[in-house]
Amino acid sequence: MQWTMHNAWRLMVLVPLCAMLTGTGQAQVLVDKNKGTHNETKKGYMDGNLVGTVYYNFGEVADWQNEPVRSGVWPKGTNHTYVDGVAMIVQAEATAPDPANPASTLLFHPLETNYYEYTRYDRSTGVTYGWWPLPGYAARFQNSPAVSNDQKTWPTHWPDRLSDWDGYWNGYFGKGIQNADLETYFVYDDNEDQEYASRYRFYPDAADTTRGGLGMQVRARGFQWSQVLAEDVIFWHYEITNMSTTDYARTLFAQYVDWGIGGHDNSSNNAGD
Which tens digit of pLDDT belongs to each residue from 118-140? Predict the structure, then answer.
């Protein structure tokens, strides 16, 4: 199963984007069976047009708790903030053995996300059960996810590309193609979510029972163009792949948006559409 979701963030509002991103760069993509880990977390800043915001390589966009003045700013360079945070969500319907009756199964609905609050976490480690980044998609020993305008953030080799892409930008539109004024790229999965395995004995991948969560992997990109028709927009593109051996009959994709319209000290009128 593979989904491709396209969302545009216009003045911190989510609207559909269907036809704009039609590149040829999706050819030659290699399957990366590495697993995500919280130790690969990196924080970046998108400021390729009039919108500026902090983001993380596990899918969270904006972070009021830790970066209140750099979260969802428009126009960039001002203190006009519009959003406290955005979390990307995937949920599915799954079954697991019923401990009380081995002849039957339990129906439940695992949900994967990562956000700075309101998430499930491992109480022994404090690590959130949810999305965490895969290794190899940004240069080591620096703090930013890979961005197209700074080669120092790129890895020496892209795990999902052939070696002839080494030294080139891993662009959505093709090898070395920087169509957008600013593009970021990172990959994350739900491997570190071991709660469903321990609680329900649910293992999404029969070939690898150490893989946690739903077995979902997300290849994520952010795009910014400074052209006047798109200067107020960040486009977020999610390619969601089921890496497991489980065939999910029902699945859901969503985003949780925590609005912060007009600043963080005035929450009474935070309504979005």
Answer: 999 999 999 999 999 999 999 99
Other CB atoms within a 10 A radius of the CB of residue 127 amount to 16
SS3 of the chain: CEEEEEEEEECCEEEECCCCCCCCCCCCCCCCCCCCCHHHCCEEEECCCCCEEEEECCCCECCCCCCHHHCCECCCCCCCECEEEEEEEEEECEEEEECCEEEEEEEECCEECCCCCCCCECCCCCCECCCEECCCCCCCCCCCCEECCEHHHCCCCCCCCCHHHCCCCEECCEECCCCCCEEEEEEEECCCCCHHHHHHCCCCCCCCCCCCCCCEEEEEEEEECCCCCCCCEEEEEEEEEECCCCCCCCEEEEEEEEECCCCCCCCCCCCCC
Q: Which amino acid is at 182?
A: L
Global pTM reads 0.90
**C-alpha separations of 132 from 21, 129, 145, 193 in Å:** 25, 9, 13, 9
Do residues 242 and 110 touch, judged by C-beta distance below 8 A?
Answer: no
Q: What is the pLDDT of residues 186-239, one digit of tens each?
A: 999 999 999 999 999 999 999 999 999 999 999 999 999 999 999 999 999 999
CA distance 267 to 265: 6
Which tokens hold the place of 5? 């979701």
6-26 burial, b at 16+ Cβ within 10 Å, e below that, comes to bbbbbbbbeeebeeebeeebe
